[in-house]
Amino acid sequence: GENVEQHPSTLSVQEGDSAVIKCTYSDSASNYFPWYKQELGKGPQLIIDIRSNVGEKKDQRIAVTLNKTAKHFSLHITETQPEDSAVYFCAASRPTGNQFYFGTGTSLTVIP
Amino acid sequence: DSGVTQTPKHLITATGQRVTLRCSPRSGDLSVYWYQQSLDQGLQFLIQYYNGEERAKGNILERFSAQQFPDLHSELNLSSLELGDSALYFCASSVGPGGDYGYTFGSGTRLTVV
After folding, report:
1. Which residues of B touch A103 (CB under 8 A)?
2. Which residue, A6, A68, B87, B103, has fewest beta-carbon neighbours within 10 Å?
3. Which residues of A touch B48 (CB under 8 A)?
4. Which residues in chain B are closer than 8 Å to A31, comparing Cβ atoms?
5. Separation of CA A62 from chain center
6. Cβ neighbours of residue A79 under 8 Å, at least 6 residues apart?
7. Nearest CA in chain A to B6
8. What string of DSSP letters covers chain A?
9. pLDDT for A97
10. In this complex, do B98 and A96 lie within 8 Å of one another by their Cβ atoms?
11. Which among B45, B106, B108 is the nearest to A100, CB-wise?
12. Residues of chain A with C-beta less than 8 angstroms from the C-beta of B97
């Protein structure tokens, strides 16, 4: 089955700096890659996603890039703010899309 | 509020007991997914129902079972509970039979087995 690895497990940045979280996947058939943000005491919330026919997608301060050949995708957060502090999960899904394979999460702390 | 409702929010029970977790999907969503989140295993897919029928099964133990009712709400039943079953249990929903437009997660049920 699919194996998703996520790095780093923890990340601290100064407010205003950029943060980058990287994930790799093993199943070349995976074609959908969502990113979720989980705040303390809440469920994961979809923040951005990308499909395998696209190399990059942006939404304000958040961007995701995908390299299908290398089987890796990354989340980029620019101009970080304290409210960006949370645990971020990447995931991969096959075309049938029944289940997501999640990475182990990155705990991001933005220091004011 | 994500629109996915899970009850109860917290549950404390003893080993060997049985509990039922409930999930109401977002209005219009036909699929319900159950995930277990523990510190050492991360988010693990348990099972999916689509419009009342089981559609996909993941790492769900035989002691666990689920169903989706005609009104589309779902219940996850956990029996013969062990200490290792302590975790956050999330329900998610999506419109179609696949999650390839993303899931919407509920806030979860924190289960503590003592």
Report:
1. 42
2. A68
3. 98-99
4. 100
5. 10
6. A16, A18, A61
7. A43
8. ---EEEE-SEEEEETTS-EEEEEEE--TT--EEEEEEE-TTS--EEEEEEETT-SEEEETTEEEEEETTTTEEEEEE-S--GGG-EEEEEEEB-TT-S--EE---EEEEEE-
9. 65
10. yes
11. B45
12. 97-98
CB-nearest to B48 from A31, A45, A99 is A99
- Say what the pLDDT of residue A64 is: 98
B5 touching A (Cβ < 8 Å): no
For residue B71, what are the contacts with CB-CB under 8 A and spacing of at least 6? Answer: none
Q: What pairs with residue B46 in β-bridges? A: none
H or E segment to which residue B88 belongs: strand B87-94
pLDDT tens column, A31-48: 999 999 999 888 999 999
Q: CB–CB of B106/B23 below 8 Å?
A: yes
Q: Which two tokens stand for residue A105?
A: 């999460």
What is the per-residue pLDDT for B39?
Answer: 78
Mean pLDDT by 10 residues, chain A (112 residues): 93 98 95 94 93 91 96 97 97 82 95 96
Residue of B nearest to A33 (CA): B100
